[in-house]
Write a structure and sequence with these properties.
The complex is a heterodimer of chains A (460) and B (443). Chain A is α+β, with helices and mostly antiparallel strands and 460 residues long. Chain A is built from ten helices and 23 strands. In chain B, helix 3 packs parallel to helix 4. The chains are: A alpha+beta (460), B alpha+beta (443).
Chain lengths: 460, 443
C-alpha cells in the first residue's frame, strides 16, 4: 500500500529531525454491512477507509498524526509538523534499512467481500423468521451482518516492515418483545476474526432462541432486588467482569500513569487462589486474535494471573519504555486515526474444577447472571459496573424466578478476592472494547464463577 | 461548493440513479496531553470522508470513501448503485428538497483563532500542574488534555440543493486521582468554547478537585428509596439514553412505546421539553439537517403532554406529517433522526423546597452504555454524589447503584427548579428537578 522508498524517506526525515523512534501504520479497510429490519433488507453499506498514521517519539513523548494521502510530500509535511516543537540534532547516524524477513506474516487472500450478497441476506432472513416463530410477543427483529477486511502495513525506524490481513465477521441480532405498552429487548452478537465462512458456521436457530428467550423473559421479569448478595456469573460473556474489574487495570496504558490500583502489585496475590487469568492473542479465529499487533510484534499468550498472583502486565512499545514491563504483542488501535496503546485481545479466566450445578447449589439466596451486558471501569480506583442482561434469583440452591434491571458494582481488587468457585464450562464471546486507542474487537470469556459477595443494583 | 460533490452527483445520474445526495465532511484537529510536567502526546490530524446515497426504483444504496480521487468517486457510486439491487423498496425515502444554496459562515460556531502553540502547551501543562499543586493528596492526573478541531460539512443533492456549514471548537479537561490512606477517588471535568480565549481551564480544575474531594470522603448510603436531583451533565447523560424514544424512526420500527401516546400526558405537568437548534445560550447553531432541511424549534413535551415526535422526511412520509428537520446521516450511514439542543423549561419550585428533607444529589452515573434498556425504560447504574438534608450536604456518596424506569421517572417529579442550568458542553439545559422514589442499593 505504501512503497518502501517513500516509507524510508519519511522515517529518515523524522530521525534527521532528532526523533528517537518513528513508525508508519498504513491501513485500508473494506467494510460491508447488511441490515435487515421489519423482515426487510433495510440497508446495505459498502465502503473503503484508507489512511496512514505517523508516530514519532522523542524519549517517551508521543507525537501522532494521520492523513488520508500516501503522497510522499504530504507524509513529510505531517512529520515536519509533528517534529517542529521538539526538533533537535539527529541521534541516529546510520540510515535505516528495512528487514524483509519481517514482512507478510500472514498470506491470506481477501475473500471477495460482498460477492454473494444473497448469502448474507438469506442468513439474516432465517434469523428473523426463526426468532418471530419463538413467541407471539416478538414484535420486532433486526439482524445485521458486518464484514471487515483490514489490510495493514507497518514500517518503523528499527527496520521493521510487516504486513497483515485481518478478516472480521460479526452477526448481530436484536429482538423486541411487546406486551401491551411494555417492551423489552435483547441482543446477541457472535463474531470471529474470520471471513464469511464463520457466519455460515453459525446456527440461526440458536441465535433466534437466544434473543427471543432473553427479550421475552425480561419482558415478564420482576425488578431485581437490591443489596449485597452472592452471584453466579455464567460462562462466555460473563467474562466481562474480569475484563472490566481487572483486565483494564493490567494494561500499561494505565500502569504507566499509576492510574491502576495494580501498578505496583506484580508478584503479589491480587485474587483468590482459584483464579487463573490469561490474555491470549493466538486463539485461532477468535474475535480478538491477531497475527501481529499494531506495532508489528507477533502476538502471544500472556498469563496475567496464576493461582491468584499477578504475573504479567500487557505492554506496548511505549508502555515498555515507561514501565520496563516486557512487550506482549498487545499494541492495538481502532484504526490509523489512533496511536497504538496496550489493550486486551482475548481475555479470560481459565476453567476450574467445579460443575455449574455445584455453584448454584452452594447459594441460599442470590443472583444467577445468565447473560451479561457491558460494563466500564475507573482504572485509577478499580471501581467497575456492569449490567445483567438475563438474570434469575437463586433460592435455596436452585434457580428460581427471572429478574430484570440488575447491575453489579464493586472494585476489582475486592471482587477478585471474592471469586471462590470456578466451574468447568468455559466459553469465550465477542465484544467491542472502548479505550484510549478507540473501539477494538476483543473477546471476553470464562467458565461460570461464584462471587461470594457483590453489590447488586435493582429497582426492588 | 466542493467539486467532488458535483462529480459524484454526475456519476450517480450517469449510472442510473433516480435521486442522489452526497455528504462530504472534512476536518482537522490538534490534541495535547501532559504527564509528569511534560507534554506526553501531541496529535495533529486531518481527515475527509465522502458518502453517497442513491435511490433507484425506491431502493437505497449507500457507499463511502476516504479517497476523493475521481476513480474512487466513480467506484463509490458504482458500489452504491449495485447495492440497490439487493435492497427492498422503501417508498418513503425520497430526496425532494431543492432550492437555493445555504452557505453558513456564521461566527457563532466558527471564529478565527490564532493562538500560538506555546499558549496551548502552557494550558495543557497547567491542567496537570494545578491539580497536583492544589491538592497534595493527588496521586496522579491520569487524564488531562487540550484539544481543538474544526470541521467543514458539505451537502449536495440531484435537485441542486447545496449546503455548507462549519464549526470550530476548543476543549480542555483534567482529572484527579486522590489518595488518602486506603481511600481513593477519581473524577474528571471538561470545558468547551468556541475560541481559545473563552476556554476556562480554571472551571475544569476547580470542579475536578471539588467533586473528587467529595468522593474521597464518600461512602454508601443505606439501601432504600430516595428522592434524587441530578447535576446537569449527569442528567443529560441519563436523559439522552431515552430521547430516541421520541423519534419517528423508533416508533416506526417498533422500538418506542410512544407511537400511541401523541396528545397524551406522559410526564409530570410541570415538564416541558423542547429541541432548540439555535438556542442563543447553546454551544451549537445549526441551520439545516442532514437532508438540507431547515432546522426549526420543536416542542416535544408540553406541560407533560407529548405533542410531537421528531422526524426526517422518510418517517414524516410514513406518518403522513411534515418533516421536523431532524434528519441525521453520516457519510457512512443510512438516514436517521437526531436531536440538537434540548431544553427543559424552568419550573416554579423555589430552591429551598426543592432540597427540603432528604435528597440525593447525583453528579456521576457510570455504565450508561450498558445499564440502560431504552425499550423497557429500565436503568440500573453505578452512581455517586452527595446526600443533602434540608439543602445541606450531610455526606459524600459512592459505591451505590441507582435504579428506576424512565417512563416512571418523568412522571414522578415533586419539584422543578426556577433556574435553567447548562451542561459543561452547553448542549443541554435543564433546571434542577426532584425525582421521587428511586431505588438505591448501598449499605
Amino acid at each position: 500500500m505504501l512503497n518502501e522508498v517513500t516509507a524510508k524517506k519519511v522515517i529518515d526525515c523524522a530521525l534527521s529531525l532528532g526523533a528517537d523512534f518513528a513508525d508508519l501504520f498504513v491501513e485500508r479497510n473494506r467494510t460491508l454491512s447488511v441490515n435487515l429490519k421489519s423482515s426487510k433488507v433495510d440497508q446495505i453499506t459498502d465502503g473503503i477507509d484508507f489512511g496512514i498514521g505517523l508516530r514519532v517519539l522523542f524519549g517517551t513523548k508521543v507525537l501522532y498524526g494521520y492523513t488520508n494521502s500516501p503522497d510522499e510530500d504530504e507524509l513529510i509535511r505531517v512529520i515536519r509538523l509533528l517534529c517542529a516543537p521538539d526538533q533537535r540534532a539527529p541521534a541516529h547516524a546510520a540510515p535505516i534499512a528495512f528487514r524483509s524477513e519481517a514482512a507478510s506474516r500472514r498470506s491470506l487472500t481477501p475473500s471477495a467481500i460482498g460477492s454473494d450478497l444473497e448469502a448474507r441476506i438469506r442468513l439474516l432472513r432465517k434469523i428473523d423468521e426463526l426468532t418471530r416463530k419463538q413467541s407471539r410477543e416478538i414484535s420486532q427483529v433486526s439482524a445485521h451482518s458486518l464484514e471487515r477486511h483490514q489490510e495493514i502495513e507497518l514500517f518503523n525506524s528499527h527496520g521493521l516492515h510487516a504486513t497483515d490481513l485481518r478478516l472480521y465477521t460479526r452477526i448481530g441480532s436484536e429482538a423486541v418483545a411487546t406486551d401491551g405498552d411494555q417492551k423489552d429487548s435483547a441482543f446477541y452478537g457472535p463474531g470471529a476474526a474470520m471471513g464469511w465462512e464463520y457466519a455460515e458456521s453459525l446456527d440461526p436457530a440458536f441465535i433466534a432462541n437466544e434473543i427471543a428467550r432473553r427479550s421475552v423473559t425480561s419482558l415478564h421479569a420482576e425488578p431485581c432486588p437490591a443489596g449485597t448478595m452472592p452471584v453466579v456469573i455464567d460462562h462466555a460473556f460473563g467474562g466481562v467482569i474480569f475484563h472490566e474489574a481487572c483486565g483494564h487495570l493490567l494494561e500499561t496504558t494505565s500502569v504507566e500513569k499509576k492510574a491502576s490500583v495494580f501498578w505496583d502489585k506484580k508478584g503479589e496475590l491480587i485474587a483468590h487462589p482459584a483464579v487463573n487469568a490469561v490474555d491470549d492473542g493466538t486463539i485461532p479465529g477468535a474475535w480478538g486474535t491477531l497475527s501481529i499487533d499494531d506495532e508489528g510484534m507477533p502476538t502471544q499468550r500472556t498469563q496475567l494471573i496464576k493461582n491468584g498472583r499477578l504475573e504479567n502486565f500487557m505492554a506496548d512499545y511505549v508502555g515498555n519504555l515507561k514501565t520496563g514491563h516486557p512487550r506482549t504483542g498487545s499494541a492495538r488501535r481502532q484504526s490509523y486515526r489512533y496511536a497504538p496503546a496496550s489493550r486486551m485481545r482475548n481475555t479470560f479466566i481459565e476453567p476450574g474444577p467445579h460443575r455449574f450445578e455445584e455453584l448454584i447449589a452452594s447459594i441460599d439466596r442470590g443472583l444467577y447472571a445468565r447473560s451479561m451486558g457491558g460494563g466500564s471501569v475507573k482504572t485509577g480506583t478499580g471501581e467497575f459496573n456492569f449490567s445483567v442482561q438475563e438474570g434469575y434469583l437463586i433460592e435455596n440452591g436452585k434457580i428460581s424466578r427471572p429478574v430484570k434491571g440488575a447491575t453489579l458494582i464493586g472494585t476489582g481488587p475486592e471482587t477478585l478476592k471474592q471469586i471462590s468457585m470456578v466451574a468447568d464450562n468455559f466459553e469465550i464471546m465477542a465484544g467491542m472494547c472502548g479505550s484510549v486507542s478507540g473501539s477494538i474487537p476483543a473477546s471476553v470469556g470464562q467458565p461460570a464463577l461464584k462471587v461470594d459477595e457483590i453489590l447488586v443494583g435493582g429497582a426492588k | 461548493m466542493r467539486p467532488e460533490i458535483e462529480t459524484t452527483l454526475d456519476w450517480a445520474k450517469k449510472l442510473g440513479a433516480d435521486e442522489s445526495d452526497v455528504i462530504l465532511n472534512e476536518g482537522n484537529a490538534l490534541s495535547l496531553s501532559a504527564q509528569q510536567g511534560r507534554i506526553e502526546t501531541y496529535k495533529v490530524t486531518s481527515s475527509r470522508l465522502i458518502g453517497v446515497r442513491v435511490i433507484r426504483d425506491h431502493r437505497v444504496g449507500i457507499s463511502f470513501s476516504e479517497d476523493l480521487s475521481t476513480d474512487s468517486l466513480r467506484s463509490m457510486v458504482e458500489s452504491a448503485i449495485r447495492l440497490t439491487d439487493a435492497v427492498e423498496p422503501d417508498e418513503n425515502q425520497s430526496i425532494t428538497l431543492g432550492g437555493a444554496a445555504v452557505i453558513d459562515n456564521n461566527t457563532k460556531t466558527y471564529r478565527e483563532d490564532s493562538t500560538p502553540l506555546d499558549e496551548k502547551i502552557k494550558l495543557t501543562l497547567r491542567l496537570e500542574d494545578e491539580i497536583k499543586r492544589r491538592d497534595l493528596r493527588t496521586q496522579a492526573v491520569p487524564y488531562n488534555g487540550y484539544s481543538e478541531g474544526e470541521s467543514h460539512s458539505f451537502y449536495g443533492n440531484h435537485l441542486g440543493l447545496r449546503v455548507y456549514e462549519r464549526e470550530k471548537s476548543f476543549n480542555c479537561y483534567t482529572s484527579a486521582l486522590l489518595k488518602d490512606g486506603d481511600k481513593q477517588a477519581l473524577f474528571y471535568r471538561s470545558n468547551s468554547a468556541r475560541t481559545f480565549g473563552e476556554l476556562s481551564p480554571e472551571t475544569a480544575i476547580q470542579e475536578t478537585l471539588q467533586f473528587t474531594g467529595t468522593l474521597l470522603e464518600a461512602r454508601p448510603v443505606p439501601t432504600g428509596k430516595y428522592d434524587v436531583i441530578f447535576e446537569p451533565d449527569c442528567f443529560q447523560g441519563l436523559f439522552s439514553c431515552f430521547t430516541g424514544l421520541f423519534s419517528g424512526k423508533a416508533v416506526k420500527d417498533g422500538y418506542s412505546r410512544f407511537g400511541n401516546s401523541l396528545g397524551e400526558i406522559i410526564a409530570h405537568p410541570e415538564l416541558t421539553l423542547r429541541d432548540l437548534p439555535r438556542y442563543s445560550d447553546g454551544f451549537y447553531h445549526i441551520l439545516t439537517d442532514a437532508e438540507g432541511a431547515p432546522k426549526t424549534d420543536l416542542t416535544l413535551i408540553e406541560h407533560g403532554r407529548l405533542v410531537s415526535l421528531y422526524h426526517n422526511s422518510a418517517t414524516a412520509r410514513h406518518f403522513g406529517v411534515k418533516s421536523t428537520g431532524h434528519a441525521s446521516r453520516s457519510p457512512k450511514g443510512q438516514l436517521g433522526t437526531g436531536l440538537t439542543q434540548l431544553v427543559i423549561d424552568p419550573g416554579t419550585t423555589p430552591s429551598d423546597r426543592l432540597t427540603a428533607g432528604t435528597v440525593l444529589r447525583i453528579f456521576a452515573l457510570d455504565g450508561l452504555h450498558a445499564g440502560v434498556n431504552a425499550s423497557s425504560g429500565a436503568f440500573s447504574l453505578a452512581a455517586s454524589g452527595e446526600l443533602l438534608r434540608d439543602g445541606k450536604v450531610i455526606q459524600g456518596v459512592k459505591g451505590i447503584t441507582l435504579s428506576g424506569n424512565f417512563f416512571d421517572l418523568i412522571r414522578n417529579v415533586s419539584g422543578v427548579g426556577q433556574t435553567l442550568l447548562p451542561t459543561t458542553g452547553r448542549g443541554f439545559f435543564a433546571p434542577e428537578i426532584r425525582f421521587t422514589g428511586l431505588q438505591v442499593a448501598g449499605q
